[in-house]
Amino acid sequence: MTESDLPVVQLTPGRWGDPAHPVELPAAAVEALKHLGVRRPAAPVVDPAVRRTAGEGEPAGDAAPGGSTDDPEFTLAAREVLEKVLGAEHVKTDFETRWGHTRGYSTPDLLRHRAGDTSDLPAAVVYPGSHDEVQALLTACDEHRIAISPYAGGTSVVGGLAPQRATFIAVDLRRLNRLVSLDEISRTATLEAGVRGTAAEAILAEHGYTLGHFPQSYEGASIGGYAATRSSGQSSAGYGRFDQMVVGLTLATPRGKVELGRAPMSAAGPDLRQLVLGSEGAFGIITSVVLRIRPRPAERSFEGWKFASFDEGLTAIRRLAQDGPLPTVLRLSDEAETAINLADPDVLGGGTGGALAIVGFEGTRTAVRRAEVAEVLTAAGGESLGKGPGETWRQGRYRAPYLRDPLLDEGALVETLETAGFWSSLPTLKAKVTEALVTALSEQGTPPLVLCHVSHVYETGASLYFTVISAQTDDAVVQWRKAKAAASQAIAAAGGTITHHHAVGTDHRDAYIAEIGPLAVEALQAVKHVLDPNGILNPGILLPED
Amino acid sequence: MTESDLPVVQLTPGRWGDPAHPVELPAAAVEALKHLGVRRPAAPVVDPAVRRTAGEGEPAGDAAPGGSTDDPEFTLAAREVLEKVLGAEHVKTDFETRWGHTRGYSTPDLLRHRAGDTSDLPAAVVYPGSHDEVQALLTACDEHRIAISPYAGGTSVVGGLAPQRATFIAVDLRRLNRLVSLDEISRTATLEAGVRGTAAEAILAEHGYTLGHFPQSYEGASIGGYAATRSSGQSSAGYGRFDQMVVGLTLATPRGKVELGRAPMSAAGPDLRQLVLGSEGAFGIITSVVLRIRPRPAERSFEGWKFASFDEGLTAIRRLAQDGPLPTVLRLSDEAETAINLADPDVLGGGTGGALAIVGFEGTRTAVRRAEVAEVLTAAGGESLGKGPGETWRQGRYRAPYLRDPLLDEGALVETLETAGFWSSLPTLKAKVTEALVTALSEQGTPPLVLCHVSHVYETGASLYFTVISAQTDDAVVQWRKAKAAASQAIAAAGGTITHHHAVGTDHRDAYIAEIGPLAVEALQAVKHVLDPNGILNPGILLPED
Question: Quick one: where's region Disordered (chains A, B) (predicted)?
Answer without folding.
Answer: 47-72
